[in-house]
Every structure is written in C-alpha cells, then in structure tokens.
Amino acid sequence: MRTTRWSLRYDTRALLxxxxxxxxxxxxxxxxxxxxxxxxxxPEVVRTxxxxxxxxxxxxxxxxxxxxxxxxxxVGFAMGMAGAVFQSLTRNPLGSPDITGFGNGASAxxxxxxxxFDAGAPQTALGAVCGGFATAVAVYLLxxxxxxxxxxxxxxxxxxxxxxxxxxxxxxxxADIGKAAQxxxxxxxxxxxxxxxxxxxxxxxxxxxxxxxxxYGRRLTLLELGDDTAAALGVPPERSRLVLLCAGTGLTAMAxxxxxxxxxxxxxxxxxxxxxxxxxxxxxxxxxxxxxxxVSAADLATQRATGSALLPVGVVTGVGGxxxxxxxxxxxxxxxxx
Length: 338
Known about the structure:
Elements: H1 12-33, H2 42-49, H3 57-90, H4 102-117, H5 121-143, H6 150-174, H7 177-188, H8 196-215, H9 217-223, H10 227-232, H11 237-259, H12 265-277, H13 284-306, H14 313-337
Helix pairs in contact: 1-3, 1-13, 3-8, 3-11, 3-12, 3-13, 4-5, 4-6, 4-7, 4-11, 5-6, 5-11, 8-11, 12-13, 13-14
C-alpha cells in the first residue's frame, strides 16, 4: 500500500517575521478601532469583540469601525503580495503594480463604474477587475517578443500607466460635482465609510488568489534565476509567468476596488520585508504582512493626527513612500561612492 507523504520547506526567520508582523498588525487594528470620538481602550475593544463590552460599544465597534479596520489589513495584505509578485517577475524594485500600470487599469475600470454607471461596491469591484485584466492583457501583448522580459514589461507598463492616468483625469473632469468629489477621495486611496461589502470584496479575492500565489511560490523563485534556468529545472516560464501575472493583477484589482489606489504600499512592502527577513527570493508572505501592517498603521496615523477618520489613508502612505524613496536613493548614492 502506497502512502503519500507531504513535506514543507520554510525559512524559520521568515516564519517568525510573519508571526511578528501579524501580531503588530492585530495590535494596530485594535488601537485603530478604539480611536475616535467614542474612545475605547484596547481591553474594552477586545471585550466588545468578545461580546462583553460597555453599553453601546457593540454598534460602534462591530458596525462602524471593524469593517474599516479589516479592510485596511486585507487591502494591505493584497497590495504587499501583489507587489512581491510583480517585483519578482520583473526582477526590478520598480516593477510594482502602481508603476507598471496594472493599478491604474483597475482604477480606470472602477472609476468608469462609479462615474458613468453610478455603481455600488459589487459593480465597482467588477469594474476594477475588468480594468485591471484588460490592462494586463494589453501590457502583456505589447511587451511580448519571444517571451515577456522584465524590463520590457516595466517600460510598456509605464506607458500604459500614463495613458490610463490621462483617461482617469478626463473622466474626473467630465463628471458632475457630486461624483467628482466621490471619485477624488477614492482616487487618493481612502478607507472612509468602508463597510462589510468592502471586506467581503477583498476577502473573497484573497481566498481565491493567495493559494495560487503560494502554490506557485517555488516557480516564482526559479523565474528570478532566468527563463533558461527555470526551464532546465522543469518550470515552464511563460505559462508560470502568465498565471502569476493574472494572480497579481487580481490581487491589485480587489485591493483597488475596496479602498482605491493607495500609493507606494505595493512598491515599499516587498523591499521592507526583504530587509527584515534578510533572505533572497520573492518573500510573498512577509511582504503581504508588511503591507497589512503599513496600511493599518497609516490608517491609525490618519485618525490620531486629525482626530477624525476623514483624512484619506493614501495621503499618509504617499508622504511615507516619498520619504522612503528619498532615503533609498540617498543610501544607493552613498553606496556608489563607496
């Protein structure tokens, strides 16, 4: 009788990093839920989630604040993982979905649904998915030349990003004042007024796509070594790249549909995760948890800085991402001098 044995390889440091980042994300989420006009301490938040909170706290915590906090964690998780996939496929730290046009494609699709069709959350999610995948197909075909290589994918993606940015600007200026205001807040990247429908949108996307990315994790690692090496080790390069490209695009589209195009998270999270784990390779799970922590911390910062939840979270990630880029460029410049 034959028995099948399963084995699992893992990096101990990367596993501990994921546990630590997840714990920090949970703590940040608890503090964010307790922040607001009706302030609650972390123990009160935990007791309320367990069903034993102060009078009136259940409505504030479960119905008003918990969906926003969960959306922040799930959106950050999706963006961090998508950034790790795209940067690994392109073998370039600039190969994140917000640089290569996939995020702008999802934004354009969602904006069409919001402005032209006055869509709700499900229709906006569908528009983001359609826009993201249409952009992915166009970029993939335009970058094809006996295969798709990283530098061509980035260059074509930058061009597509510019075109889509112009298209979204045109839609924005042609919209009436009410829809324009709604689109303006959404385009910056906002978690304001997020409900359970947004949680389900990104949650279902993660449930479907995360197993695909993890299942193709070994192939993604081998693709970083080059197509010839990957093919010699039994990995079909183009088919694997296409599956991973679709998975990364889907993660980006779900995140954009739920919270808008929050800038710099997909680009910075994989790089920060790689520095923490000190390991090569895609680091998809550490990058995902780093993204979750970054977005949840940015959401907490917006509420603590302004005393309300009105400031879009994209403002904080944009400022933080700009400072991170400045530090990174200064570090690279100093290393070149040495």
